[in-house]
């Protein structure tokens, strides 16, 4: 039976879904997508016509949240092993971004009932993500990349802020002074303090008041534009491939449940700049990079990134999309989130946010 070679979806007693992707499933699904069919309760949201896909597949093996497979050296099928029935942001965002070329061309979203189970996009030859290429740059002390990815982030935001059939009204104004962003950031700080033990925990507790003060601009920010942001914009989501840089992975932030999808552009920019600091930490820990030179590299790369970002917005007449007063508090919140993520999922990552916080507040 045709349908038997689609993935198996099982529903656990608590309602959680699990996806089983057996051998040959990716190829079979792609053949059916080309023919425009899907066995119910699967369905397909077509985004662009699927190109012919030659046979042959291989898994992507870098650290990843989901399970991506390259098929025919032409497309990437990203399977979501734990599909969620909550609305997934990626298909809508990718449809909205139809005019934005600097991502992997999206072809189709595959659903099981109302849960997104796969995204099919173009394969970008020779792609490496920033946890490789940006660490290379840190080790070599080069910063030209920072201008490139700064303008890439601004171009993404300009595209997010442009009306489309999907989001005809993509820019909103925040209600002034609600205090909700400070509440969210302080909660992250409290959690980071509670979850970080040992010497790091002692150091952090000694800086708790300083960190809290950094979050104060969030208490009553002026009204500021809100757009659909990427939501998880770090160098690992920026691929350097044969033809330049591309931003991928519009899944949103896996560590913030239920966040309003409309956020200040500064959220993404703050996360991206802190990820450059993380790349510096990785270069020192895992490569031969010297700490002092790498710290200087990070300062200069961050500055170039932000300058290029601002210049690209300004050239488009949209400098008002960025409220720079939000950057520092969002950066501090991001470092707290990295500590929470490390404590919960990846203890060996703790050195990176701790190294960054020590370099800022040492
Ligand atoms: P996840 O949600 O699992 O993090 P991503 O969309 O970020 O998934 O993809 C994981 C990794 O797969 C990326 O870091 C990159 O190395 C590789 N990758 C993703 N999309 C492509 C693509 N279109 N072409 C080539 N490699 C890709
Ligand atoms: Mg990713
Ligand atoms: Mg992801």
TrEMBL record:
Q: Which UniProt keywords apply?
A: ATP-binding, Carbohydrate metabolism, Kinase, Magnesium, Metal-binding, Nucleotide-binding, Transferase
Carries keyword Kinase? yes
Q: Which parts of the sequence form the motif Substrate specificity determinant motif?
A: 334-349
Q: Residues of the signal sequence?
A: none
Q: Is-annotated flag, keyword Kinase?
A: yes
The residues the record assigns to binding ATP are: 78, 122-124, 129
Q: Which residues bind Mg(2+) 2?
A: 249, 251
Q: How is the cofactor bound?
A: Binds 2 Mg(2+) ions per subunit.
Which InterPro entries does the entry mention?
Answer: GlcN_kinase (IPR043674), Kinase-like_dom_sf (IPR011009)
Q: What is its EC number?
A: 2.7.1.8
| Homology family | Belongs to the actinobacterial glucosamine kinase family.
Q: Tell me how this protein assembles.
A: Monomer.
Q: Which HAMAP family match?
A: GlcN_kinase
Protein name, per record: Glucosamine kinase
**Naturally occurring in which organism (per UniProt):** Microbispora amethystogenes
